[in-house]
């Protein structure tokens, strides 16, 4: 469905993304986790052809058989909504506040698929039903501010699904939602991906939400994927020091950890232009080797479908 | 009376706009008969979704709002019986940290000025040393007092907010989603800092969060709110080990990395 090869995004001399490789098959659900500044949103945007003008991109992207490498805006427009669609963290900001939500969702159906008004309307009601919006007929006529956060996110998902995309990119779709609502939205995304055979890229800083939603997980740091593999494998036996640090820094839920200090990754994520040329994590890494800062580690297999990019892997420890 | 903070059956109602000319809308009960106590040095966690009344409760504890019913006793004194001037004096002993430090720090004032604000409020005007001490204590450079909020990262700004909160040597800190906006690795640093400060100064905390894993690491007791009412209240470890309601169980499931299969949808 999506094949991205060696994607690098530059702003001047700073690299926001470096050498990203991604493949997604139909129905596959990939979770992308990382902290602010890790490049996860930039990756989502690059798969939509929505990078800011100042960004320079290299590498190849194929989406559902179409080569989008160096594609112009017009060719991206031709595949957005129909092949790739995206949903965002804040549905209130993504929906036109002055339009009834039903009309908003009708728009791509009329524009891209050339549906008649009646056909589009019927399809919207179907979509609302599919995404679990209660009382679709009444909701059709409401404005975004009249809906709850969860309902708004469902409307946005309906909008994204309107033209039956092959790939859905969800950038922090549950971050602004309450726990109960967030659980239902992730369940919905899983169901939709399964039923429609749609590939899902689920971007989040919330490890728990990714673990619930995705089959595979890619951990990003400093614009690179540092570790990738099946969710269970990555979470139960992380190989990259950053993944390990990230998992340890999460407070444990079990008893007996009250006021137990958390193991901390020292320092903070450096600014894009201050990243090391070698391993991006060098400088904060507890098990750093002398050549880490200058030599870029290759991604190596550490288990079944499980890779990590660290000089320690394979080296004598 | 060993409680530092004693919340006694507080209720807070907000009038709602009329939808019909002839029928007044019933008031929204944001907090409904909630009681809780915090002993010195202890932490009470308040969890619940948006609209559950967490923040309203915190605002009543801080004296920003007055309960319609019930009392908030701090060190045995009813906060809402005090005059405004007396409340200002008492407030040195209880301070607040907010979710968004960028929103709670004046962008046009130096960090040092903001951190010294609670000291000025109680009449301490020569406070340069105190500000430097407290900035150092939260892991910042004492010279950072001359810089401005926009020069700092999110985690550092939250350190500044914590420095301001502890500047007047309070006995209680009310933290409203204080670590929710932070990345995992930074959040761990801030949680550790709060634990250190708590032990060093014997601070009690009222810690509001929607993330049960954070609450589990910090809180002795737990109050789960829903729609303004108490859903569960008791020792944190007991509630986390065996939540009595599905509501709490779902909050717990959301914080888990490996959700047990069959999570309530």
UniProtKB/TrEMBL annotation, chain A:
SUPFAM superfamilies the UniProt entry points to: P-loop containing nucleoside triphosphate hydrolases (SSF52540)
MF annotations from Gene Ontology: ATP binding; ATP hydrolysis activity
Source species of the chain: Rhodalgimonas zhirmunskyi
Keywords on record: ATP-binding, Cell membrane, Membrane, Nucleotide-binding, Transport
Species classification: Bacteria, Pseudomonadati, Pseudomonadota, Alphaproteobacteria, Rhodobacterales
Membrane topology: Peripheral membrane protein
Domain ABC transporter span(s) in chain numbering: 2-247
Location within or outside the cell: Cell inner membrane
Family: Belongs to the ABC transporter superfamily.
GO BP of this protein: peptide transport; transmembrane transport
Descriptive protein name: ABC transporter ATP-binding protein
Broad class of where this protein is predominantly found: membrane
Gene3D superfamilies recorded: P-loop containing nucleotide triphosphate hydrolases
Cellular-component GO terms for this entry: plasma membrane
TrEMBL record, chain B:
Keyword Nucleotide-binding listed: yes
SUPFAM superfamilies reported for this sequence: P-loop containing nucleoside triphosphate hydrolases (SSF52540)
UniProt GO molecular function: ATP binding; ATP hydrolysis activity
SMART domains: AAA
Record key words, sorted: ATP-binding, Nucleotide-binding, Transport
PROSITE patterns membership: ABC_TRANSPORTER_1, ABC_TRANSPORTER_2
Residue intervals of the ABC transporter domain: 5-252
Pfam families the UniProt entry points to: ABC_tran (PF00005)
InterPro entries: AAA+_ATPase, ABC_transp_ATP-bind, ABC_transporter-like_ATP-bd, ABC_transporter-like_CS, P-loop_NTPase
GO biological process annotation, one example: transmembrane transport
Family, as annotated: Belongs to the ABC transporter superfamily.
UniProt protein name: ATP-binding cassette domain-containing protein
Source organism of the structure: Rhodalgimonas zhirmunskyi
Lineage: Bacteria, Pseudomonadati, Pseudomonadota, Alphaproteobacteria, Rhodobacterales
């Amino acid at each position: 469905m999506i094949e991205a090869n060696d994607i690098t995004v530059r702003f001047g001399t700073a690299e926001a993304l470096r050498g990203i490789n991604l493949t997604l098959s139909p129905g596959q659900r990939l979770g992308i986790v990382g902290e602010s500044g890790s490049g996860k949103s930039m990756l989502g945007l690059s798969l939509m052809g929505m990078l800011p003008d100042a960004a320079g991109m290299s590498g190849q992207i194929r989406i559902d058989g179409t080569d989008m490498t160096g594609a112009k805006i017009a060719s991206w427009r031709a595949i957005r909504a129909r092949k790739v669609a995206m949903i965002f963290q804040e549905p209130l900001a993504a929906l036109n506040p002055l339009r009834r939500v039903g009309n908003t969702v009708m728009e791509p159906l009329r524009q891209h698929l050339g549906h008649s008004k009646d056909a589009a309307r019927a399809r919207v009601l179907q979509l609302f039903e599919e995404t679990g919006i209660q009382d679709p007929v009444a909701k059709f006529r409401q404005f975004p501010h009249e809906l709850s956060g969860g309902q708004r996110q469902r409307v946005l998902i309906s909008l994204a699904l309107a033209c039956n995309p092959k790939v859905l990119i969800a950038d922090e779709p549950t971050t602004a939602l309450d726990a109960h609502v967030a659980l239902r939205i992730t369940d919905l995304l899983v169901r939709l991906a399964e039923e429609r055979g749609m590939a899902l890229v689920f971007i989040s800083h919330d490890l728990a939400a990714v673990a619930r939603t995705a089959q595979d997980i890619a951990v990003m740091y400093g614009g690179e994927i540092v570790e990738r593999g099946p969710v269970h494998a990555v979470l139960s036996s992380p190989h990259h020091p950053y993944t390990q640090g990230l998992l340890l820094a999460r407070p444990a839920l079990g008893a007996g950890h009250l006021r137990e200090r958390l193991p901390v990754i020292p320092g903070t994520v450096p600014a894009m232009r201050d990243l090391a040329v070698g391993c991006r994590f060098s400088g904060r890494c507890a098990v750093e080797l002398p050549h880490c800062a200058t030599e870029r580690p290759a991604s190596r297999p550490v288990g079944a479908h499980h890779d990590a990019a660290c000089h320690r892997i394979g080296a004598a420890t | 009376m060993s409680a530092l903070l004693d919340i006694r059956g507080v209720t807070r109602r907000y009038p709602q706009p009329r939808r019909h000319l002839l029928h007044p809308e019933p008031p929204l009960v944001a907090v409904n008969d909630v009681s809780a106590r915090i002993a010195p040095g202890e932490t009470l966690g308040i969890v619940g979704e948006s609209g559950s009344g967490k923040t309203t409760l915190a605002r009543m504890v801080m004296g920003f709002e007055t309960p319609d019913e019930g009392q908030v006793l701090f060190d045995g004194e009813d906060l809402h019986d005090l005059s405004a001037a007396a409340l200002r004096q008492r407030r040195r002993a209880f301070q607040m940290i907010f979710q968004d430090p960028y929103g709670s720090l004046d962008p046009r004032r130096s960090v040092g000025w903001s951190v010294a604000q609670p000291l000025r409020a109680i009449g301490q005007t020569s406070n340069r040393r105190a500000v430097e001490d407290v900035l150092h204590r939260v892991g910042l450079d004492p010279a950072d007092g001359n810089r401005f909020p926009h020069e700092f990262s999110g985690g550092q700004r939250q350190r500044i907010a914590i420095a301001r909160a502890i500047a007047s040597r309070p006995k209680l800190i009310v933290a409203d989603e204080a670590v929710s906006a932070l990345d995992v690795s930074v959040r761990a640093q801030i949680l550790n800092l709060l634990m250190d400060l708590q032990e060093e100064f014997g601070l009690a905390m009222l810690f509001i969060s929607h993330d049960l894993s954070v609450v589990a690491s910090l809180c002795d007791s737990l109050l789960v709110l829903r729609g303004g009412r108490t859903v569960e209240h008791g020792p944190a470890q007991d509630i986390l080990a065996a939540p009595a309601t599905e509501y709490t169980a779902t909050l717990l499931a959301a914080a888990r990395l490996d959700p047990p299969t069959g999570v309530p949808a």
